[in-house]
Amino acid sequence: MIIKQTRVKVGGAQKLVAHITNTAQNDAVMILKGHLGIPADGDLIAEMHNRTYGNRHVIISPQVTLTRVQLDFVLTLIFQELNVADVSSDAYLLIQHNKIRHDHKTNAPHFHLVINETTSVGDQLEQSMSYVTNEKIARLCELKFNHKLTKGRHNYAVVKSLEEEKRLDEAKALRALLEGPPAFAAYSSQQLRKAERYNVNLPRIYYLVKNISDQDLFMDRLAILEAEQGLAFQLSADHRQLLILKNGQTIADIFKFIEEKELIHAIISKLQSRQPGI
User: What is the DSSP secondary-structure string of 97-147?
Assistant: First the structure.
């Protein structure tokens, strides 16, 4: 399971609602709890208290389809960690998205949760260590549901946090994740949002090149992406990155998507003699 959270600035409610209700990129969009006016309420309340952020946007992305009981368990953990005061069904917005994932391995629905950042009396949601909190919630849910454990980027901090909370059984169960290097994120949520604004399908690019071990096949895939999504690719000045460009905007570094790191050196050698644009 992957859980991500972002704070949405005041004035961003309309764009947030447009994003999470977008039917073009999903087979189905369903409101499970709350109503579409909740994000706008968050902006108004934040303005009343002179706050910068109006809403918290949490993405819940399981690899296995959740039952309603399991989903409620996930929500309960999120509310506890964020110190949500009002957990009544009309105090937050929960939307379910159904679509086939880009890895073609699962069609488990994912969820978008929107909570007002500030309460009517001025209290705010918990803001510290959000990345660790996200992974802790996800790992606890995987343990509870007997799902495969996902190796995150903050394994040590998660185990330490659980030990400090005297949740020793859970900490012990997660200790295997401390072996080897932490997981590496190919792209950030901010890069994904920017890609969507420029109509770039970043997950498709990732799954199209991640397992490639042949430089000629890699170049063929770049040509496909150029024609398919109107992209350009350019080596950075230090030749350490191969930038994905759309309308002159840098979207991400495609080298981060490649698992076979030796291939990167071969690609750089092949491209160094070419012009910046490929």
Answer: EE---TTSS----EEEEEEESB-TTS-B---S-HHHHHHHHHHHHHHHHTP
